[in-house]
Amino acid sequence: MRFKIAAFGDSTTAGTPGFKSPIEAPPHGAGDVQSQFAYWLMRAHEDWLVLNRGVNGERTDQIRARLAHDIRELDPDVLVIIAGVNDIHQGLGAEAVQCELQTMYELATTAGRSIPVVAASILPYNTASADANARMRKVNDWIRAYAERHPQVAYCDTRTAVARPGDPDRLLSSPDGLHPSPEGYRLMALALEPAIRKLLIRTGARELDGRRDA
Question: Distance of alpha carbon 69 from its chain centroid, rounded?
Answer without folding.
Answer: 18
